[in-house]
Amino acid sequence: MEIYVPDIYQKDIYEIKYDVLTSRGIKCLIFDLDNTLVPIKDTLPTDKTKELFKELKSKGFKIYIASNSIKPRVKPFHEELNVEYIFNAKKPKTNRVNELIEKSKFGLDEIAIIGDSMIDDVVCGNTIGITTVLVDQISKLEFPLARIRRFKEKRIQKKLRDKDLFTKGRYYE
Ligand SMILES: [Mg+2]
């Protein structure tokens, strides 16, 4: 069950204490897109997202987007936020994200993956051995596949709560 437990859990990407990540040696951030950066109905990043990414870059973070969505969905975010990206990432499978990590030249202890899905983002990151940051989903609206995973996630979260390993809404660093 530990494979589902994130190292850090915050409400959203704006609540994450990036200075704490820096103090832990993190230099590279791999963001999920859907329901992490924006709701699925949004086709472009918001000004708030742009501001955050600008700030994170100025703090020296290298940023990537790793999305399970298709290229036409992800590419506008790459263009607007000026960060490299992978689409069809197939998280929780690790192949595509591992390729990205190899290309990045950062060590596993220097990388954090940030996303709203325990099953996709956290399991992917924990399997690879990088720092995992879970955030709450921005919107209840989901793509069909994500909706199925969310259903499974709720069952997992109940088990985790029973074992006192994770409780939704109880945020931690
Ligand atoms: Mg997501």
Structural summary, described in words:
40% of the residues lie in helices and 14% in strands. By secondary structure, it is α/β, with parallel strands linked by helices. The mean pLDDT is 97. It has one domain: Rossmann fold. It has a six-stranded parallel beta sheet, sandwiched between helices. Magnesium ion (MG) binds next to loops.
Give the structure's gist in a few sentences.
The protein is an alpha/beta fold and 173 residues long.
Keyphrases for this structure?
173 residues, Rossmann fold, six-stranded parallel sheet, 40% helix, alpha/beta, 6 helices, binds magnesium ion, single chain
Q: Major sheet, described briefly?
A: 6 strands, parallel
* Helix share, percent: 25-40%
Which regions have little confidence, pLDDT < 50, spanning 5+ residues?
none
> What is the annotated CATH architecture?
3-Layer(aba) Sandwich
CATH class: Alpha Beta
CATH topology term: Rossmann fold
| CATH H-tier superfamily | HAD superfamily/HAD-like
- The oligomeric state is single chain
User: Count the helices. How many?
Assistant: 6
* Count of folded domains: 1
Give me the side-by-side strand order of the main sheet. Answer: 1-6-5-2-3-4
Query: What is the string of SSEs from the N terminus onward?
Result: EHEHEHEHEHEH
